[in-house]
Amino acid sequence: MHYQLYYWPMIQGRGEYVRLALEDAGASYTDVARGKGGTGA
Q1: Which residues lie below 8 Å from residue 3, measured CB to CB, with a gap of 6+?
Q2: What local confidence, expressed as pLDDT, does residue 17 receive?
Q3: C-alpha to C-alpha distances, 30 to 2, 4, 10, 18, nearest whole angstrom
Q4: Which alpha helices (DSSP H) does the chain contain, by range?
Q5: pLDDT at position 41, please?
Q6: What's the rounded Cα separation, in Å, for the pair 1 and 11?
Q7: CA 11, CA 14: separation in Å to the nearest integer?
Q8: What pLDDT tens digit does each residue of the chain (41 aa) get?
């Protein structure tokens, strides 16, 4: 299964705990930055 991690650039942290857990489990994921208005960037 492939995960997508959504984050807003102005918010610090960006789900680092989730990212570390996915990396530890060997799961694949993609960072998806969110722009103004909640759209993907």
Answers
A1: 22, 27, 28, 29, 30
A2: 85
A3: 8, 5, 18, 12
A4: 16-25
A5: 53
A6: 26
A7: 7
A8: 899 988 777 777 667 888 889 999 999 999 888 766 555 55
* 39 vs 20: CA distance, rounded Å: 25
pLDDT at 1: 85
CB-based burial, 7-39: b 16+ in 10 Å, e otherwise = beeeeeeeeeeebeeeeeeeeeeeeeeeeeeee
pTM for the model: 0.58
Which position has the token pair 């759209």? 39
Q: Where are the domains of the chain?
A: 2-38
Q: What is the DSSP letter of 11?
A: S
